[in-house]
Write a structure and sequence with these properties.
Elements (H helix, E strand, L loop, with lengths): L2 H8 L15 H10 L5 H14 L3 H6 L2 H8 L6 H15 L9 H4 L7 H12 L8 H10 L9 H14 L5 H14 L18 H5 L26
Helix pairs in contact: 1-11, 2-3, 2-8, 9-10, 9-11
The chain binds a DNA duplex (11 and 11 nucleotides) through helix 2, helix 3, helix 6, helix 8 and helix 9.
DNA sequence: AATCCGGGGTG
DNA sequence: CACCCAGGATT
């Protein structure tokens, strides 16, 4: 069984039951994707529930006050996500008559929707044949194929995006995209991946070479936050 | 290409 | 404390 088929077989028995799964509603999918940017599912889930409850449709979000939108986002961080989301809701409500753009090409033009999110919405909501590449996918691919391209450089990112394209199955590409991300989140985790019980173990380069902990390669300037005893005196 | 944006969990 | 999280925008 090849890479994609193994993940497709693994997925049904392991996937978490999340409210934005198994829905074709592009508005709900978009909400979840924006909320989950650089945010763990456990932290984002209650915010997703709150947004759907307060703003059932994209028109409702568009018509909401900036103050209410920001207040609902309060505590999630990366606040430009909320401002961009609100602006994009207005664009979709007006220029698109409340109907989401249905292609990655059109989606990526919207504020707060980049390469990843455009691909995710196009795949999950509209079944477009595009590979979705997020932090989970970088990790799974770099380990399984033993790729040491640096994911903090545009060149490295491109390398993984090209590889991801070649792996995309012609059938069930949408489910496959969700499967590989879920696999990265639950099985091929950043620290202490569960290699002992892994359906991809036999073909995994990182497992064979013991490089699980050094992949993916990500070189980045470490921002040094200095904590000193002086803080103690700040009242 | 490098920086910035952030709260929260993990080892 | 260092690193990471369903990344994107700006410089």
């Amino acid at each position: 069984m090849d890479f994609a088929q193994t993940l497709l077989a693994w997925y049904p028995d392991h996937k978490r039951d999340l409210p934005w799964r198994d829905t074709p509603n592009p508005y709900h999918i978009w909400l979840s994707e924006v909320i989950l940017q650089q945010t763990r599912v456990k932290q984002g889930l209650p915010y997703y529930v709150a947004f759907v409850e307060l703003f059932p449709t994209v028109q409702d979000l568009a018509n909401a006050s900036e103050e209410l939108v920001m207040r609902t986002w309060q505590g999630l961080g990366y606040y430009s996500r909320a401002r961009n989301m609100h602006a994009t809701a207005k664009i979709i409500a007006q220029a698109w008559q409340g109907n989401f753009p249905t292609t990655k090409a059109d989606l990526i033009k919207l504020k707060g929707i980049g390469e990843y999110t455009a691909s995710a919405i196009a795949s999950f909501a509209f079944g477009e044949q595009v590979a979705v590449v997020d932090g989970n996918v970088f990790r799974v691919l770099s380990r399984f194929f033993g790729i040491e391209a640096d994911i903090s450089s545009p060149k490295g990112v491109k390398h993984f995006q090209e590889l991801a394209k070649t792996l995309l199955p012609t059938q069930q590409s949408q489910t496959y995209n969700q499967a590989i991300m879920e696999f990265g989140a639950l099985q091929c985790t950043p620290q202490k991946p569960n290699c002992m019980f892994c359906p991809l173990q036999a073909g995994c380069v990182a497992h064979a070479t013991g490089k699980q902990d050094s992949l993916p390669v990500k070189t980045q300037k470490i921002k040094q936050v200095v904590y000193t005893w002086q803080w103690f005196f700040i009242k």
